[in-house]
Amino acid sequence: MKIIDIGFNNLVVAEEIQLILSVDGVSIKRRIAEAKKREMLVDITKGRNRRSVILLKSGIIVLSSVNTKTLVRRILKEANEVGA
User: Which PANTHER family match (predicted)?
Assistant: First the structure.
């Protein structure tokens, strides 16, 4: 099991991540609004700019202030450490 820090010491199991998206675009903003209405939105930005949107397999959407590329690097680093 690979655990990834997605910002401010908030952790997620890497295998539960379905998508990591940038916050740009109307369609993702619409999905964020829908998730908020359904209480399926978790905002871990602590008031900072949203830099990535993490969609979990459960349908929960997580807003993070960590850049998408940084999250991917963390996942790959964890995969390499576990695989070594």
Answer: REGULATORY PROTEIN SSL2874-RELATED, REGULATORY PROTEIN TM_1690-RELATED
Residue-by-residue DSSP string for 23-60: S-SHHHHHHHHHHHHTT-EEE-STTSPP-EEEEETTS-
Number of helices (H) and strands (E) in the chain: give both, helices first: 2, 6
The predicted model scores a pTM of 0.91
Tokens of 10: 């908030």
Backbone angles phi, psi at 53, to 5 degrees: -120, 125
In angstroms, what is the C-alpha Rg of the chain? 13
The one-letter amino acid code at 80 reads N
Average of per-residue pLDDT across 15-40 = 96
| 36 Cβ contact list (under 8 Å, min separation 6) | none
